[in-house]
Amino acid sequence: MLHDVVSAVYRGDYLIEIELDDGQRGIVDLSKYSVKGDRE
User: Fold this and answer.
1) Are 17 and 9 in contact (CB under 8 A)?
2) Is 32 helix (H, G, I), strand (E, B) or coil?
3) CB of 28 closer than 8 Å to CB of 16
4) What is the enclosing helix (H) or strand (E) of 6?
5) What is the pTM of this model?
6) Most buried of 3, 9, 16, 32 (most Cβ within 10 A)?
């Protein structure tokens, strides 16, 4: 079963606090997806 995100709040430094439709909450760290360098 997939849940919907009902709330997402930026907490700084690539951290996003999310709340799902079933009441669960957590913080997602997206820092590993940031890439610096040349883009072509």
Assistant:
1) yes
2) helix
3) yes
4) strand 5-12
5) 0.73
6) 16
* pLDDT in the model for residue 37: 58
The residue assigned the tokens 């913080």 is 27
Among 29, 25, 36, 23, smallest CA distance to 11 is for 29
Residue range 1-40, pLDDT digits in tens: 899 999 999 999 999 999 999 999 999 999 988 877 565 5
The answer to whether the CB of 21 falls within 8 A of the CB of 3 is yes
Radius of gyration of the chain, Cα coordinates, nearest whole angstrom:
13
Q: Which residue has the tokens 């709340």?
A: 19
How many angstroms from the chain centroid is the CA of residue 4? 13
